[in-house]
Design a protein that fits this description.
303 residues, alpha+beta, Beta-lactamase, 2 domains, six-stranded antiparallel sheet, two-stranded antiparallel sheet, 14% strand, globular
Length: 303
């Protein structure tokens, strides 16, 4: 089954874009799919951030946490480092700042390479030991460290990991069983990366988003949270589809779409006006090239 996707396949083949799997669902029905290597669970990298966002929406609904809560409310570390007087301490960062990635770091903490080499096992303490370079809440800088701190805040507030919190509330209702999600040395769900899913499972998540949090006639996550998370909350300065703005752990796209995405080409693209979800798993540095192929070859086939 790949007749509808022939143009997309031809384009990515001609441009040597290494796409493992693509699935297009419209009006809740499978339009076409292509899995030359089979569809199996692969690490979703920063697509994981969008799942962490769902945990925030649930915890806010349950009154466990608020968007104006600060890191200092949960991590009252005594800092030995002196902060520039014109900028707040990281203790003043709000959950909303972290969701929008407006924490105020020029060099965001806890990138993958830093996480791998970090001697400090308490990653939250490390994050909060670093001074801010500018006032938070004003400028977007993509930061996996911000998302890790969201996960850490939630774990402190809820008393369990984000993974365990989401299992009965999201993963099991969506039929995603035996979930694997990497953790920090102290057992905090990574949040920013490390979630393993198949492309079909990623498509299921996209359909749940398209339905504004409903699944099998049950409202799993508040619709107003889905709408807030998937609309532009802050401007971004990137090129192409990275310059369309950012929500709460979701990227805005051209063509009135939004997406969860991860390094090397994991995408969960939702086009509400087309009632369509496009999920892609790849191992490709040229992520904009994949999105261009989506807009040029898949968008025209959608009714």
């Amino acid at each position: 089954m790949s007749e509808q996707l022939k143009g997309f396949i031809d384009k990515i083949t001609a441009e040597e874009l290494l796409v493992h799997s693509v699935r297009v669902q419209q009006n809740g029905l499978l339009l076409d799919e292509w899995h030359p290597d089979g569809d199996r669970r692969r690490v979703q990298h920063s697509v994981s951030k969008s799942f962490t966002c769902m945990a925030v929406g649930l915890a806010v609904q349950e009154g466990i946490i608020r968007l104006d809560d600060t890191l200092g409310d949960y991590f009252p570390y005594d800092q030995v480092q002196l902060y520039p007087t014109q900028f707040p301490s990281p203790r003043e960062l709000t959950l909303r700042d972290l969701l929008r990635m407006t924490s105020g770091h020029d060099s965001p903490p806890l990138w993958a390479d830093e996480r791998a080499s970090l001697q400090e096992k308490d990653w939250g303490k490390h994050y909060m030991s670093l001074p801010l370079d500018r006032r938070p809440g004003e400028q977007f800088t993509y930061s996996s460290g911000d998302t890790f701190m969201i996960s850490a805040m939630l774990q402190e507030a809820i008393g369990q990991t984000v993974k365990d919190y989401l299992i009965p509330r999201l993963f099991e209702p969506l039929g995603m069983l035996d979930i694997e999600w990497e953790t920090s040395p102290l057992g905090v769900t990574l949040g920013c990366a490390g979630l393993w899913l198949s492309n079909e499972e990623l498509s299921r998540f996209g359909q749940f988003l398209l339905q504004e949090g409903r699944w099998n006639n049950q409202q799993l996550v508040p619709a107003e949270w889905i709408r807030a998370a998937t609309r532009k909350q802050i401007e971004t300065s990137g090129d192409g589809d990275w310059g369309q703005g950012y929500g709460y752990q979701f990227w805005m796209c051209s063509h009135d779409a939004y997406r969860a995405d991860g390094a090397h080409g994991q995408f969960c693209i939702v086009l509400p006006y087309k009632e369509t979800v496009i999920s892609i798993n790849s191992e490709e540095e040229n992520m904009q090239g994949i999105l261009n192929a989506v807009w040029e070859q898949i968008l025209p086939i959608l009714a």
